[in-house]
Design brief:
- By secondary structure, the protein is α+β, with helices and mostly antiparallel strands.
- The protein is 54% helix and 14% strand.
- It folds into 2 domains: 102 residues, Ribosome-recycling factor (Topoisomerase I, Chain A, domain 4), CATH 1.10.132.20; 68 residues, 2-Layer Sandwich (Gyrase A, domain 2).
- A hairpin with a 2-residue loop joins strand 3 and strand 4.
Amino acid sequence: MPRQTEEPETTVNDILSDANNRMGKAVEALRRELATIRTGRASPALVENVPVDYYNVPTPLNQLATISIPEARLILIQPWDKKALSGIEKALLSSDLGLNPSNDGNVIRIPIPPLSEERRHELVRLLGRRIEGGKVAVRNVRRDALEQLRNLERSKATSQDEAHRAQVDLQTVTDSRIQEIEQLAQAKEAEIMQV
């Protein structure tokens, strides 16, 4: 009697490939999130996602203006619509970035002051929390993939040896992604602590 399946069977390679892709996306999301943590240098990523109330619609700043870095410690924001200037300024002041924008009627300039030692240590603690969140995301992907592999083994769709080899491969991929996160953390911490 032929088996009726609604979807094609998932293979061990499909599970490993999917887990690797999802872990890669988790690392990329963390990389983007770390770009928003302030260091002593100016970076467009610092302000590009600040939500601005634009005609009663919260809109990311990078959709309302050109953000440039003319100097190492200065962010220049040039809105496409001059009416958005005051909204952008309010959003920057109310953000938790601790920045002090100045509005000259055409552009907004944000000087990036050097970080105090206390603020640097606060940012390193924040970095630690974000890094741990990234590791948890990678481990959650591993947990899901392990469960899928165990289900394949239980349903006799794969042998016990093949499932074990796949689990070892999955752990290798997980370890490499965690190592990648550790390298991101070290680089960002060095950037934060640099005077």
